[in-house]
Amino acid sequence: MTVLITGAKGFVGARLMAMLPGAVAAPSLRGVKMDGLKRMMDEIQPDWIVHTAAISDIGACEKDPEASYRANVELPLMLVGAAQGKKTVLFSTDQVYSGLNEKGPYREDAVCPANVYARHKLKMEQAVLTADPSAVLLRATWMYDMPLYGLPNRGNFLMNMLLAAARQEPARFSQSQYRGLTYVREVARLTEKARLLPGGVYNFGSENTLPMYETARRFIEMAGWRVALQPSDHDGHSLWMDTGKLRAQGLAFSSTLDGLRACLKDYGL
Ligand SMILES: NC(=O)c1ccc[n+]([C@@H]2O[C@H](COP(=O)([O-])OP(=O)(O)OC[C@H]3O[C@@H](n4cnc5c(N)ncnc54)[C@H](OP(=O)(O)O)[C@@H]3O)[C@@H](O)[C@H]2O)c1
């Protein structure tokens, strides 16, 4: 089975390329038009498609909302059109919950996006599902891994902790913010199974019943790294997702702490 991966050199896409059997990389889709997407589908003839390409930086989307709209709404919508009924699995974000008042856990139907990136991802989910009700939209959490040789790295919990240890700088986390952190290799493994999900939106990542400060404290204890931990000055919005809808379909993530433990073990740390 051939699976076409967009954003193949990105943080998630690179792991999908390494882990999904039959993965074929899409070229960069920056500025692509419908005819270019149709040509790509004709050439590659994928059985299914995973779309990770996006402007995923919240600050970049705030600075250039038009570019965010093109990349995060128009592009995925065109891609689903060009796929002509082939199963599509598209990445969305837990940021769609960023304006809710409750600390969580959040189910899929209560959303309140508080930034441009989140508003565009939510719009994308709705537009894609209108165009193709069989599409699967995965709301991902903040993901982590070690860097991959030759690929751009991006800030994530594990790297931030590693850098804090290496530079002997304190790591700061909120004592009241709840959010899931997910091992990106577990995301890649479960994405293969997401192809079989009925169309719709799914919370897709590790849950976390601990506030971020306590998560970091337990991680440091588990890893044995020398990191000074300090409470952060600002609280940070909770982004704690309830993954019951996904579990009901037989797909379950490790808890945030178990995922971190598995990652340390994978890297011999
Ligand atoms: N990383 C996380 O922790 C996280 C958390 C929640 C949700 N997500 C979502 O998960 C998906 C994958 O995230 P990621 O971290 O892998 O993303 P990423 O590494 O920031 O970007 C993935 C790829 O998107 C392509 N891209 C960038 N700007 C583009 C543009 N203007 N038009 C078209 N393509 C563009 C780039 O590929 P080329 O250079 O080849 O064009 C890039 O490698 C995204 O949808 C993101 O919103 C990520």
Could you explain the architecture of this structure?
The protein is α/β, with parallel strands linked by helices and 269 residues long. The chain has 2 domains: 3-143 and 180-207 and 242-254, Rossmann fold, CATH 3.40.50.720; 145-177 and 210-237, no CATH class. The protein has helices at residues 11-19, 34-44, 58-63, 65-83, 116-131, 157-167, 184-194, 212-223, 244-247, 256-266, and strands at 3-6, 23-25, 48-51, 87-93, 136-140, 142-144, 171-173, 181-183, 200-204, 229-231. It is globular, with a radius of gyration of 18 Å. It binds NADP nicotinamide-adenine-dinucleotide phosphate. The site of NADP nicotinamide-adenine-dinucleotide phosphate has 22 residues, from helix 1, helix 4, strand 4 and strand 6.
Mean residue pLDDT: 96
Largest sheet features: 6 strands, parallel
**CATH-assigned fold name of the largest domain:** Rossmann fold
Give the N-terminus to C-terminus distance in angstroms: 35 Å
- How many strand units? 10
Find the structural class using helix and strand composition.
alpha/beta
Q: What is the quaternary state of this protein?
A: single chain
The ligands found in this model are:
NADP nicotinamide-adenine-dinucleotide phosphate
Question: What is the H-and-E element order?
Answer: EHEHEHHEHEEHEEHEHEHH
SS element count, helices: 10
Radius of gyration over C-alpha positions, nearest whole angstrom: 18 Å
Strand content: 5-15%
Specify the CATH architecture of the largest domain. 3-Layer(aba) Sandwich
Low-pLDDT segments, ≥5 res: none
Helical coverage, percent range:
40-55%
